[in-house]
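Render this sequence as a predicted structure.
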Amino acid sequence: MSNKLSRKVTYGFAVGDLGGNLFFTLIGFYLLFYLTDIVKMSPALAGTVLMIGKIWDALTDPLTGYLSDRTITRYGRRRPYIFVGSIAAFFLMGIMFTPISIASPLTQFLYFAVMYSLLNTAYTLVNIPYAALLPEITDDYDQRTVLTGYRMSFAVVGTFVGAAAVLPIVGILGWGGMGYLMGLVMLITAMITVWAVREPVHTKKEKQKSFLKTYGEVLSNKVFLLAMIPWALFITGTTMVQGSLVYFFAYILNNETLFQAALMLLLTFALAFIPVWVKVSQRIGKKGAYSAGMAIMSIAVMVFSYFTDSLGPAGALVIMAIAGIGLSTHYVMPHAILPDTVEHDAVHHGGIRREGVYSSLWTFSSKIGQAFALALSGWILSIFSYDPGAVTQFAKVGIRLITGPLPLLFYVTGILILHHYPIDREYYNRMVLSHAETDL
């Protein structure tokens, strides 16, 4: 399994995250804004809609992972879920972003909460099995990082589309048309992965434990927790930054058109530095590279939130570029770390492969982080009396808070916890070699 991968498998797998990250980015940057400024929902209710949808999304992750580990079909364990989920996501994306007139605030709240939950369920059917494919494609420590680098290059392209193309498309097709078009991109990229990747043959179900015992064992795995908790904290901070930027440019810098240019610069530097960080990780390890990147991100968001006014538009763009350098590690390192924790589990549990379980909990933690970040952002905007029709100085304090200080808190806590994560190249090779000798 550690042989060099073909271009078809490498690019076919990697392109799947273009659609996935498009979804993640579009939701992170625009859904709260869409609900408050287009649908005209109160910030507190809008934030709660996003929290409900993400919590529901997180709860379906473990079940999807558990079931995909036990699915035996002629098409594999993961690809049937990706196939069905991508079709459902196409339709639900269009429906979610088609504004409808609902007089009752409660009915409006319930409608969007249900629709967002359904959309997230469809995304789960794609994302959890997709993430579980990586440990099955290769077991080589460095090759996983390289494959993740390709994957995240496509992910950053998805981020470009999900961030920078949304408002221009809305200007042409409206919000509903944008939703269907983005859903179509998600569908096409997922189908390419279904076509290109052939999973290892599973002719019978591996001996597995019950649902509760399985997840109990995984959640007692200290090595996994030392990777997962920082990932969730970094996701929380990054989601807050994503959701706040459109407000920051529109109401604090009074330059909404600069938002698109800043996003392009942020993502261009994130994409450009992916191969750089892959090389850096081969020198200082995945943990070291990830910590360094998030430290850069921490400094950048604080400088941006409190000094951009005096630095002007050019200064804002420079800070966004620097933030992109740090953000680049967030696209690569966590997804290269996860397969190593899966291998650690297999070595210590008799070779039982639980990729789906680990991928589901990994994604579960990120979605809880997203849910908390989005809800907290909405609640803070409400506490600071945000009104899109009349944004006061008091409201601007709230916008600054969710752009800099609060994300910084999550970033620093994550870095401190990640410091204790033990798996490096030597640890990994020693672990795999020991397991191979035991098998002999």
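Summary. The CA atoms of residues 47 and 375 lie 4 Å apart. The chain has 15 helices and no strands.
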